C-alpha cells in the first residue's frame, strides 16, 4: 500500500511535507506509511486518497492493498439503486435536444445518447457502431466519422492531448492503450503541437461536414458532483452546442422537420 500511495503522491507532484500538511498528519508518519514501517488505518488511507484526488476505483485498490475491504460500491448501471441516476441522465440528454449529447464511461464507451447524436454518425462503418461503441475510436478512425471532420488535424490533436492527460491523472492502463491505438490512426492534416485559437475561436471547435454544409460545435463535460459509487463517478455527459448561428438554425430546422 505504501508504494502505491507514493506513486499517487508523485503523480500529483506533491512532496511528503505538502501532503502531510494537507492531510493534517506528520511528515514522519507519512514517511513510515510509504515505506511500510507503519500500517495505516482505513480512515487514514481514505483521508490521504481524498487529498490526492485518487479515483474511487483506485481508492478501493489502496484499501485492498492495505488489508481492508473496499468501501465504494460499483453498481451495474441497470441496478435498481441507480434508477434516479438513469432518470437524471435521460432528462439531461432529452433536454439538450436539438443539439447532440451523449453519456460515456471511464474508457469512453457510449452508455446513452439523444436522438441528435445520429446526426454525427452518418457514414460510419457498422462495425464501429456495434456495441460497445467507443466514441473516441469512432471519431478518429478512418472508417468512422473522421472523414467528415473538416478540421481533423486540430480535433485529433485536442482529443489525443485530452486522453493523454486523463490517462496520466487516473493511471488507467485501458486509457493508455486507447491513446496508443488512436495515435496510430492516419491523418492527412497537420496536427498542431500546441492548441492555438483561430480567428474568433474561444474553444476548440468540432467542424463537421453534413451534406454541403459545415457544422461547428463546441462541447462541455458534466460529471456527478458527489459520487460515492464507482460506476456513477466514472460517468460523464458530453454535450455539444452550436458554435455559430448557422449550425443552430440547421439543427432547429432538422428537429422541426422530425416533429
Automatic annotation (TrEMBL):
Transmembrane segments: none annotated. It comes from the Bacteria. Residues 5-59 form the HTH cro/C1-type domain. GO terms for molecular function: DNA binding. PROSITE patterns: HTH_CROC1. InterPro entries: Cro/C1-type_HTH, Lambda_DNA-bd_dom_sf, MLTR_LBD. Gene3D superfamilies: 3.30.450.180, lambda repressor-like DNA-binding domains (1.10.260.40). This is Helix-turn-helix transcriptional regulator. It comes from Saccharopolyspora hirsuta. The lineage of its organism: Bacteria, Bacillati, Actinomycetota, Actinomycetes, Pseudonocardiales.
